[in-house]
Structures are given as structure tokens and as C-alpha cells.
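Page 37, top half.
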Amino acid sequence: MDKIIISGLKFNTLIGTLDWEKQTPQNITLDLTIATDAKKAATQDDLNDALDYTKIVDHLNGYIKTHHPELIETLAENLATEILTHFDTSWVQVTLHKPGAVLQAKEIAITIERHK
């Protein structure tokens, strides 16, 4: 299986269960690994045969701007569903990092894998 890896995507969004988190945007970071078949794109050197990661990033950006779940688990699940629904892939891994979620840790993160 070939994979496209997009790491360190930064977004500013509302996420959290506390009252202040529902009013103050916070930084989150995403790492994505997405299954693809890169052979045809590599052979033809044609973007039309590739998984267009710019479109994926733009799509997720739009989603994150308009959807504000409380839990990182919910957002990770929803982003995986968005990728599987709107792009030509059968498997995705999403890691969502929420820096500063607790004082004692640099960040809290969740990694999920989903497939069609």
C-alpha cells in the first residue's frame, strides 16, 4: 500500500468542554496518513491520477472552520470520515494534537485509523 503523509497541519479552532474553550480558539495540529495507489500518478506524472493533498487540506480547513465539537475524539473521527467520504482512499490514519490541554503535559493527542 502506498501512503501520502501530511504532517504538522496547523489549525486554530474552537474545541473543548470548558466554557472558555467554547469561546476562545485554540491551536490544534493534525498528522494524516492516507492510503493511495501512487503507481499510475508516478508513471503518468499527472495530478489527475494522484491523491491531491492540497484539496484534502483545503477541505479539512473548511470543515474545521465550521464544526466545533467538544472532544478531540469526535473531531478526529469526523475528519477521518470526511477524508474517506470525499477522496479516493480506503484507509486513513488521523492524529490530532491539542497542545496545552493539561498543564502537566506538552500536549494531548489521539490517533485513529479508519477504513471503508
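Page 37, bottom half:
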Amino acid sequence: MSLKVGDIITFERTFIGEDVELFIKVSGDEGSHHVNPDEQGRLVIQGLLTATLPTKVGGDNNVLARSMNFEFLRPVFT
């Protein structure tokens, strides 16, 4: 697949508690909201873990990223 300006690519996944735990080991981000579940039993996923989603698309298309900008509008939960 050859990417062109204006192409739209979608990719989604579900993050689980184990993903959050593994990212804690890699990043050291042990914020209490990543370790202690909320009243609904959910953990807040690290922002930079959610920011890994574009790397899947880039990897699938052999793209080397030079820069990425993110705006985190609200928490993402397991």
C-alpha cells in the first residue's frame, strides 16, 4: 500500500489491564490512576500508550515518523 496525502487509515484496539501494567514497566509511569481502578473497575491508560496507535499504521506502511503531535481530550480507560 502506498500512502498519499489525504488517505484515511483506521485502526483500533482494546487496551486491557495487562497493557497498562506492561507500559508501567517500560515507562515507569506509575500514576495512581494507572494502578488503582476507579469505582467501575477501570484503569486510566497512559496517554503515551494510546499514542502508540499511529506506530502500528506507520509500521504497516514502512513509514519513519519525524514528528507527531497529540492532544489528549479525555481519559481512555481499560
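Margin note: The helical segments are 17-27, 32-35, 47-50, 53-60.
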